[in-house]
Amino acid sequence: MKLGDLGEFGLISRIAANVAGGNGVITGIGDDAAVTALTPGMQLLTSTDMLLEDVHFRLSWHDPYRLGRKSLAVNISDIAAMGGIPLWATLSLAVPANLPLDFLDEFTRGFLSMAREHGVTLIGGDTCSSRNGLIISVTIMGEQHPELIVRRSGARSGDEIWVTGTLGDAAQGLALLEGTITPSRQGRGGVSGEACDAAEQFLLSRLLDPTPRAAAGRSLAEAGLVSAMIDISDGLVADFEHIAELSGVGGTIRLDAVPLSPAFRSVASVLPTSPYQHALTGGEDYELAFTAPPANHEKIVKLMKKCGIDGVPVGIVTSLPGVRVVAPDGTEYIPQSHGFTHFT
Ligand SMILES: [Mg+2]
Questions:
Q1: Smaller CB count within 10 Å for the chain: N or C?
Q2: Taking the CA of residue 23 as centre, how many other CA atoms within 13 Å lie in the half-sphere pointing to its CB?
Q3: Cα(82) to centroid of ligand 1, in Å?
Q4: pLDDT tens readout for residues 19-71
Q5: Under DSSP, is residue 297 helix (H, G, I), strand (E, B) or coil?
């Protein structure tokens, strides 16, 4: 069967058939609007993201299952960055007529697997045909107590700047796909070809199937440990600049403190350029960057451990505006670009 035989309503029923009820969902897919109820005392968080073929993804690189997962993951990441609990999502698709139905089935399977992992229920959406590639638009809703919601505007001079996980993996994965980094089948400096392949697979999975730091974001907020938070979608420097701007502060990031994965290091070791370019300004890691008073340091370390991820301080919030990156010898490191932006 082809998409054309199925039609719009057929496609919607095909997706809806795999969706069960969920938290706070009173009426899900099928009526003119979904009906949902927030937990009493909570406020609604809403965020939306569009993914466009050949702007955000390429069908030759992104398999449909992981594309479905990522479409929701990037939205969950935004709720995590507010310290919220993700609850509901809508999914709208503009689909080229020639897209195989199998692709949509796999995409939906991926999307719903990510939803299940994070307790998110698909409550609606829209489908239409596209003349210019696949367009995916997801809106996510979540909730949190008003006093626990973490904004970008709360950083104070003297706070530590933290990041979760490792940075630059997704950017290196993208560089591998784009061919700006040459894959190394012969092995690198005594490292076997197999180990190189494993490193490359890790970097690619960080790009194609990112893990939103939902538990960490929520736990940090609920413990009241952080003053400002953002998810790293456009690179640490660019994303921390958003915190700095809205908080009326600046920041100093220590180059040698930026956490790098073993896979990242092994690939970076054979590159002629500084590895930090990808780590500081590469997009799509979907880790969290947050600020917190130094007094909360030990509690944050413990909480991160409990969430099963690493969190490390990488710098300090300054009253001086602007974001500086400082190398171990005290010199300032100037990244070649600040991070990914559209329309430039
Ligand atoms: Mg964000």
A1: C
A2: 15
A3: 9
A4: 988 899 999 998 999 999 999 999 999 999 999 999 999 999 999 999 999 99
A5: helix
The CA 60 to ligand 1 mean position distance, Å, reads 26
Tokens linked to 24: 């706070």
Q: For residue range 70-127, what is the model confidence (pLDDT) as tens digits? A: 999 999 999 999 999 999 999 999 999 889 999 999 999 999 999 999 999 999 999 9
Write out the H or E segment, with its range, that includes residue 222.
helix 214-222
Residue 13 has what pLDDT?
85
Amino acid at 339: G
In the chain, what are the domains? 3-148 (3.30.1330.10), 152-333 (3.90.650.10)
Segments of 250-297 assigned E as strands: 250-254, 287-292
**Ligand 1 mean position, distance from CA 297 (Å):** 24
Nearest to 52 by CA among 100, 24, 105, 93: 93
CA of 164 to the centre of ligand 1 (A): 14
- Residue 343's pLDDT is 55
Q: What is the DSSP letter of 38?
A: P
Please check the confidence at residue 188 and state whether its pLDDT lies above 60: no
- The pLDDT value given to residue 186: 46
Contacts of 25 (CB under 8 A, 6+ apart): 34, 35, 36, 88, 121, 123
Cα separation, 216 vs 305, whole angstroms: 9
Question: Chain-wide mean pLDDT for the chain?
Answer: 92
101-117 and 64-81 helices, crossing angle to 10°: 30
Residue 195 C-alpha to ligand 1 middle, in angstroms? Answer: 33
| Higher pLDDT among residues 145 and 187, named by residue | 145
The whole-angstrom separation of Cα 8 and Cα 19 is 17
Alpha carbon of 232 to ligand 1 centroid (Å):
7
C-beta of residue 276 within 8 angstroms of C-beta of residue 333: yes
192, 277, 212, 248 alpha-carbon torsion, rounded to 10°: 160
